Amino acid sequence: MATVIKLAEQKPDNREADTTKRDISEVVKRLTALVEGELAEVNKVILVEMQSEVALIPQLAGHLIAAGGKRLRPVLTLAAAKLCGYTGSRQVGLAACVEFIHTATLLHDDVVDESDLRRGIATANAVWGNKASVLVGDFLFSRAFQLMVADGSLKVLKVLSDSSAIIAEGEVQQLMTANDTDTGEEAYLSVVKAKTAALFSAACQVGAVVAERPTAEEEALISYGTNLGIAFQIVDDVLDYSAKQAELGKSIGDDFQEGKVTLPIILAFRRGNEEERSFWRRTIEELDQKDGDLEHAMSLMAKHNTLTDTLERARYYGAVAKDALGLFPESEVKETLADLIDFCIERGH
Amino acid sequence: MATVIKLAEQKPDNREADTTKRDISEVVKRLTALVEGELAEVNKVILVEMQSEVALIPQLAGHLIAAGGKRLRPVLTLAAAKLCGYTGSRQVGLAACVEFIHTATLLHDDVVDESDLRRGIATANAVWGNKASVLVGDFLFSRAFQLMVADGSLKVLKVLSDSSAIIAEGEVQQLMTANDTDTGEEAYLSVVKAKTAALFSAACQVGAVVAERPTAEEEALISYGTNLGIAFQIVDDVLDYSAKQAELGKSIGDDFQEGKVTLPIILAFRRGNEEERSFWRRTIEELDQKDGDLEHAMSLMAKHNTLTDTLERARYYGAVAKDALGLFPESEVKETLADLIDFCIERGH
Rounded to whole angstroms, what are the CA distances from A217 to A211, A213, B210? Predict the structure, then answer.
């Protein structure tokens, strides 16, 4: 009798959860509609390439990857290629690569430590799947590189292997600064840039690379992707404490429970008095949390306006992203990519 | 205060442990001496490329990778290049890639599931490092691809991304057949080929690729690496039950404790009577083990001659590996590569 491998109930990454669970917003729908044909091809490639004779691989990967999701990153690759006037088909396989790398990251993010278990964060299912999550993630990551090799461009390989290394560095850095109330805004941003923005950036850049556009356009798409990614992640960190989310019946305070030091907390800690800092140290560093602590945390954030001010920071990155598009001629894709920035930020309100 | 990330006491992969802990055998020393200069360069590349501003990365990677070890896989790459008469220096960076991929695999192999904890297999340290092991492994894996991209050969990238995908598939397959006494010899071999032999094969093949040798020589090195890798793993699975190991004061029976279905057990199960099969089902499938069970398991293996016969299987692969070298002109490297096969098998006695 074979051991039954329980499928981990994959908890989507925080930055994703709030948007996938909500109705896909009108602007993402519009952007997706503009690359509908290519996206259908991407989905075919994904389904074919996640196959393996080892049954657990398509099973577990399918659980996460085929379930749908909004495929934001591959859509960005497709849209960037279109923005650059590309008429070939190389973006299809590469968009699938981007999604595979993203999924591998999610699977590895899902791995938990004994310390997490003690804090009661992980579900039993997630724990049963630790090893399976790692290995299937490795498979998808290797598959992504095989797809890139099949594409045959060393430049694309460089863009995506560089961004993979940066993502891994960012994840390790996040692990090292976890539960550390001394984390400053710069350290927070550095993690956000690495773990989220690097793949947004690469996803967009690849569009320019396949279209063989001049450096200026490639750099513009790097800037768009990077700054959109930063804004996206900052807003997601706000949403974890958002009253609107609570109204919609979504769970809030997951980051608080895990002791994640996100910008709303960094600002509250810096602006707080000694008594407040003791509260943050107890709840975030020592993870000694009781009933009412989340409410108190939110009242401190409200007192110091940290959610609103965090959104202001996101707005800055959104503005930079928008101007990065300036080089490109007017088109429906360009307009929709610009609108996407607004969507990313507005969902925080 | 930053959370202290405890370094997992990295338990080397079983297939490695028995050889690294023993004196490095004379033949491995001889092979290493033949590529001494290049290996020193490989070690430099490894030290440089595992650096990161994120301190935990060189810390954890260094713990495993810089500690020395016999670097068998990169030595194979260097030796294969020399066998092919290559006089350039590309093999250096690629040998470092091979070692990075191997180390990433070890780190990911180290990840444990809650189920393992319940069985008391994992050390507390190994558990604390679950997440760190995964992420640092991801970093090394990405770094390996960056090094390949810097080398610039799509063929090398294909060889190593293909083998990475095969390794991941093999690891998942192993997970699925764990504790399954129905596992047959073919399924066992299929895992061994994927999880161990694929990287041995790629390590050797890369030597022929950089030397731009004809297909026949490249295929000969694939065959040598594959069959050497299979023999190496089979013998390692025997060593886990070896009386000689026990005499040397090495721990034995780790595979038994984990319920790993290796060839000595597969043969004992097939050759056993119903009572014996019940014993294997209780100890290996249900992991219900008590004092004296390991001794009983070893007495059943002795009764059915399964350790000796498993070594005979390894001898077959060794013979194939040796003949694969036939194409190459006589040289000290060729002779030593042939001797390496004998060493691999003889250490099982």
Answer: 10, 6, 36
- pLDDT at B271 > cutoff 90: yes
Burial of A187 (0-12, 13-18, 19+ CB in 10 A): middle
| Averaged pLDDT, A270-275 | 97
pLDDT at B230: 98
Longest Cα–Cα distance of chain A, Å, equals 62
Calculate what percentage of chain A has a pLDDT beyond 90.
72
Q: Exposure string (b/e) for A307-341, b if CB count within 10 Å is 16 or more?
A: bebbbebbbebbebbbebbebbeeeebbebbbbbb
Neighbours of A182 (CB within 10 A): 13
| Range scoring the smallest mean pLDDT among A118-122, A197-201, B29-33, B41-45 | A118-122
**Report field, pTM of the whole predicted structure over 0.90:** no
**Residue from A141, A153, A177, A288 whose CB has the most chain B CBs within 10 Å, to mutate:** A141
B7 vs A65, higher pLDDT: A65
CA distance to B30, B32, B42, B211, per residue, from B88 (Å): 22, 18, 14, 8
Chain A CB contacts of B260 below 8 Å: none
Mean pLDDT for chain A overall: 88
Domain ranges in chain B are 14-346
Nearest Cα residue to A266 out of A310, A318, A313: A310
Q: Which residues make Cβ contacts (< 8 Å) with residue A85, sequence separation at least 6?
A: A211
Q: Is the pLDDT of residue A114 over 60?
A: no
Q: Given B115, B145, B176, which is nearest A54 (Cβ)?
A: B176
Say which CATH topology domain B14-346 has: Farnesyl Diphosphate Synthase (1.10.600)
CB-based contact, B13 to chain A, within 8 Å: no
Cβ B266 vs Cβ B185: under 8 Å = yes
What string of DSSP letters covers A46-106?
HHHHT--SSTHHHHHHIIIIIT----HHHHHHHHHHHHTT--SSHHHHHHHHHHHHHHHHH
- Distance, in Å, from the CA atom of A94 to the CA atom of A79, rounded to the nearest integer, reads 13
CA atoms within 13 A on the CB side of B271: 16
Complex-level ipTM: 0.86
pLDDT value of position B167? 97
Q: What is the mean pLDDT of residues B28-47?
A: 95
Other CB atoms within 10 A of residue A239 CB: 22
